[in-house]
Amino acid sequence: MQKKKSNNVFEKIYMGIIFVFMYAPILTLIVLSFNSSKSRAKWGGFTFNWYIRLFSDSEVLNALANTLIIALIATIVATIIGTVTTVALVGLNRKTRAVIMGVTNIPMINADIVTGISLMLLFRVLHFNTGFFTVLIAHITFNIPYVMLSVMPRMKTISPSVYEAALDLGARPMYAFRKTVLPDLAPAVVSGALMAFTMSIDDFIITYFTKGSGFDTLSTKIYNEVKRGIQPEIYALSAIIFIVVLGLLFASNRMKNVKIKPREMDERKAKGRKVRLIAATAVAMAAIVFLGMLFGGVFSKKSNQVYVYNAGEYIDPEVIEMFEEEYGIEVIYDEFESNEIMYAKVAADNAAYDVLCPSDYMIAKLIQNDMLYEIDLDEFPNAQEYTGPQYFESAQAFDPGNKYAVPYFWGTVGILYNKTMVDEPVTSWDVLWDEKYSGEILMQDSIRDAFMVALARNGFSINSTDPKEIEIATQDLIDQSPLVQAYVVDQVRDKMIGNEAILGVIYSGEAIFTKRENPNLEYVIPDEGSNVWIDAWVITKDARNKENAKLWIDFMCRPDIALMNFEYITYSTPNIAAQEMIEDEDIRTSEVAFPPAETLKRCDTYVYLGEEGDRLYSDAWKKVKSAN
Amino acid sequence: MFNNRKTSTVMSSPYLAWAFIFIVVPLGMIVYYGLTDDSGAFTFANIASIAQPEHLKALLLALELSLISTVICFLLAYPLGMMLAKNKMGNQGIITTLFILPMWMNFLLRTLAWMTLLENKGIINGVLSAMHLPLIHIINTPAAIVIGMVYNFLPFMILPIYNALAKIDDNVIDAARDLGANKFQTFMRVTLPLSVPGILSGVTMVFIPALTTFAISTMMGGSKILLIGNIIEQEFTLSYDWHLGSGLSLVLMVFIIINMIISAISERKESD
After folding, report:
1. Element (H or E) spanning A333, and its range?
2. Is A90 in Cβ contact with B8 (below 8 Å)?
3. Which of A128, A345, A562, B248 has the least C-beta neighbours within 10 A?
């Protein structure tokens, strides 16, 4: 007896440990959702703020609605197709059945990434317009097997005799099926549907590859947010999802317990319960669809749109709303993490976006591969009047004749450092190789910028295509990688503000922004020189809304708008009128925002290196990334 | 249905068409892209590129981390499954549900939770520094990726093992004990073999997603550590090389097929 007891205690402890392992992380998310401090390590007091922000964040609500609608429709379609097919399988011969089951097993066993990629290839080759429907098709495809594998075992146990008897007694096949087979099948169908719904809601990878432009489910939205730097609204969202799931599971558990003795219930009560259940389900579905129509706009595709693809955190969100209001054009706004990611997307589907904002060298690449639409500057009165001619002049370097691009912002690349945590003055890229700062360095997760640092440090051209120089730079980056905390893009600013790292490679505009939030941060362009870049608006060749795209670009060049954007993201604006309107004297004369000529002399622009050069860099980059 | 071949064929044809277009054809396209180059000429180069040091390294690391994660998941889940299956009375339904519940949270949110905990200035270090204990630096290392994998996929191991163990008839165990087997013998020769199907499906459900993930390694590894999933993802989203990406996917499928064969063989042995 004694032994048994100690055994029990041991079991309880063991279960307790796993329980804590599974729930502690979720609990922290919930606690953090009430933390008024943005920093995760500090408790800044209790707040409901993040919940309020969450409910005013239409993008997240949109994604939530999309997730629910996709899951719901995919589940219904998959359940119907899956059930009908499973029922039919009984009547087929062995061989056909084996083939069908074999094919059905493929999406279950196959890795999600392969399924996702295979569907993406299909949609791209067939020139499907990726978005809601491609995601829906993908979800139906991977949901059907779950339904079939759930219904199959039950179907095998059903004897045909009752059904045949019904037919003999004059019932029509459909009626006989409904009355004899379906009731036995129902529990398996329901559990298959539930499984499908769960899988659909939880899916990230397949959606990621099939979603296309301007469409997000919760999973892809969260992935984007995480890459950008975690916002506390996401904690609030996790808390809500957890509570809802918890509630649903306990409710379903109670229902199951009741169901154990249905025979003891009198018929009418059972019927009443059934009716109520069906009614509740119907109401829930209606609510979901309504929600989706409200937020998702899935069924209300407006024709007057413009698809904008911009770098992350690169516009004042209010500007988007102002544009929508003034022109009555709906803006579908997506963000990319790096020029290379943007290129892969646009190369795969040129019409995915109408207007892009790439950097200089990438514009050259786009032009060379004939992916851009030629513009006439006369159609952009604001750009002609307010954008400094010297910037159009510089743009000629990558866009000869100014035929494609309208400058948006420009800036430099440098080191952002926390002056309280660095001993010596930071003047050289070499500091990023100083072992003292091991684990405290953030590098850009962008090929050209990472190599620029290593090339400049060695005194090579930042546009080098000399394999020997690239090799030296690659080796440098490999040597550096143990010291690097992480390769990130937009996260640099959050991490630097939160004192998560001491040194980070960053673009000049972020310097002013981060300094506002954390006065200890300082930005420097190292002596060895760096990169000066121009980002400019271009229109894709196959854009569906070219006129709207033109309106968008010229709107960005309006002085008040350029000023709003400047004050929000603090990169150097090429808009002369906006420059003069900057109220803050410190910023108007800031050397970070508007570096003096002698600093710029040290800086070079990136040049497009051609296909071979690109390969050289991307192969080298892979070597760096897989070094540790 | 039921012996009516014609109706059955008609009823199953929509799915057959669907499966052909959206399962078979897309896979065929991966094979096509994987075996051709830019000009459409046949080549093995994309598949052979797995031998490139950086690809091989990513594959081996992915294999290593996913195997470690699978073993850890198994070691954690099996005892738990036994405990859950043993307490067949009372509110065990609720308890079992609680262990599977995290599966219903969005997978990225689950990973995000661990990011928050493990960051250098994260919760765990916050607590440790408050207690004047040495800080941990796990985030952005392979260990963090393993934690992320184990945490995300553990319910997928618990559920099938629990199901298999719960199905074992108590009388079988009692019979073994009556016939003189001790606890250990009973476990080794009765319980364990009977739970093999559950273990196998648990292993598959953990191993395959762990082997092919790219989100967990990106989030927990700070983009510093590339697994084979990251390499494939980047060929499509960054380098824009569908041929290479497809070729590497084909290599990945070899491991999936190996896993399938191992499962099938073990299952057949079981049923013999």
Report:
1. strand A330-336
2. yes
3. A128
